[in-house]
User: Which sequence fits this backbone?
């Protein structure tokens, strides 16, 4: 099971900016977030993996998940 | 008033619908049906995520294209949207039918449409008593199945609502049958009972047929189906490593497919379904198996570059570019002699066994961008979007 590590982003003090690759919403990602951590987009709720952090810019990528009842 | 794409995650099909809408000049709004709070009270309703208020989007939406990946969420989404006065594609009634293989087959059976012999036993393989002890019903269920379907010809045990060939097991003797029944455990997707089906002697392929209806027009069946083919397994799902080909459909099969669509559409103004069908070829084969296996092996080599593109992560970062790469790889695959030879065999086999086709499943939210679109030439997003548009225009 995937648990977002920063479900309440407002609690962190220093933030990096990121953009949801799906809905384009702006995300504030805590500065101490590390590569591989999971954040969730406040706009669409999607869980996103931190792929890279460079000079305060955070690259996020959708996670591929599949539920038991997913499909056609 | 607009068309909203309701989705959980933007997979290739959803991205394909967005891209196609842009190309057709159709405005789409988006409803992420995931971490959203849908609130109802005497004051009305609201729909909000943590960071965005979608209530106005809901108000402005007239038609919902339901692409929630979870069958349960999809069903709930259709029902919810209909209760809020929206048109849905497909309707909750059609979603409810297509959710279950048994319900789909019951509707087709009622209309006299060809289906494989199917047996349903409502009992689960195991019951738990209040004291925690278990009662095993496999033997009783197996007896009931064997009384209806000859075991020596094969009995297929299916999860009523599974996908991608999961929990579909072939039994050819009593031991396998009881083991398959025991394996069928109740879950959120298959809450009760066990479904068994006769083994259709489909040789090496099955068909995926697209049928659709726009409001104010006659329903149509697309003239070319996708054939999933291979000798690897009695299941022909592409998920299990089978290859895809195209197959032109005789008019009589197109007519039957339209009847299936009408049956599952239940009188709604617009619908779209991907019907899964098998041809009971039996021994009426038109090619030698050894030759065919050789051609499939050759085609499989040509399929490798397509698979590589599918796994390419550019689909997540640049979908149009990735789509272009996939189309180019698919075009190369389709241009091979082996592809052409196998396609010819499948099309001839369908013509020779035109009265032996049975429909066994219907998909209300079909995957299409990677295989169906490129094998058949039909971008399913087009009839989907046109169907939604027709519900606004009329």
Assistant:
């Amino acid at each position: 099971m995937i648990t977002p590590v920063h479900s309440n982003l407002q609690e962190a003090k220093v933030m990096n900016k990121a953009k949801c690759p799906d809905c384009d919403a702006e995300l504030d990602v805590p500065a101490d977030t590390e590569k591989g951590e999971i954040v969730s987009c406040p706009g669409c709720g999607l869980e996103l993996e931190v792929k890279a952090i460079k000079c305060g810019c955070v690259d996020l990528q959708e996670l591929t998940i599949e539920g038991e009842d997913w499909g056609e | 008033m607009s068309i909203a794409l309701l989705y959980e995650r933007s997979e290739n099909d959803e991205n394909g619908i967005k891209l196609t809408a842009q190309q057709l000049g159709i405005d789409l709004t988006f409803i992420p049906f995931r971490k959203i709070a849908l609130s109802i009270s005497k004051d009305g309703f609201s729909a909000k995520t943590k960071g965005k208020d979608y209530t106005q989007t809901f108000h402005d939406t007239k038609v919902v294209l339901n692409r929630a990946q979870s069958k349960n969420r999809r069903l709930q989404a259709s029902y919810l949207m209909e209760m809020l006065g929206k048109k849905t594609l497909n309707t909750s009634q059609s979603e409810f039918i297509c959710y279950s293989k048994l319900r789909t087959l019951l509707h087709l059976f009622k209309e006299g449409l060809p289906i494989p012999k199917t047996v349903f036993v409502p009992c689960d393989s195991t019951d738990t008593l209040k004291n925690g002890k278990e009662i095993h019903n496999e033997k009783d269920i197996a007896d009931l199945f064997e009384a209806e379907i000859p075991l020596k010809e094969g009995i297929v045990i299916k999860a009523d609502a599974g996908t991608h060939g999961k929990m579909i097991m072939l039994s050819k003797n009593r031991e396998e049958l009881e083991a398959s029944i025991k394996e069928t455990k109740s879950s959120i997707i298959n809450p009760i009972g066990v479904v068994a089906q006769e083994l259709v002697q489909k040789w090496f392929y099955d068909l995926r047929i697209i049928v659709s209806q726009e409001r104010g027009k006659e329903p149509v069946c697309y003239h070319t189906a996708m054939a999933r083919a291979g000798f690897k397994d009695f299941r022909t799902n592409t998920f299990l490593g089978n290859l895809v080909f195209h197959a032109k459909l005789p008019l009589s099969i197109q007519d039957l497919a339209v009847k299936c669509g009408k049956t599952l559409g239940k009188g709604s103004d617009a619908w779209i379904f991907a019907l899964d069908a098998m041809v009971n070829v039996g021994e009426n084969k038109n090619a030698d198996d050894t030759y065919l296996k050789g051609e499939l092996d050759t085609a499989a080599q040509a399929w490798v570059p397509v698979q590589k593109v599918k796994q390419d992560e550019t689909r997540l970062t640049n979908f149009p570019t990735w789509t272009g790469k996939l189309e180019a790889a698919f075009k190369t695959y389709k241009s091979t002699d082996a592809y052409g030879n196998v396609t010819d065999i499948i099309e001839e086999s369908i013509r020779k066994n035109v009265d032996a086709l049975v429909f066994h499943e219907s998909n209300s939210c079909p995957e299409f961008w990677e295989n169906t679109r490129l094998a058949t030439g039909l971008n399913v997003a087009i009839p989907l979007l046109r169907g939604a548009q027709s519900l606004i225009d009329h």
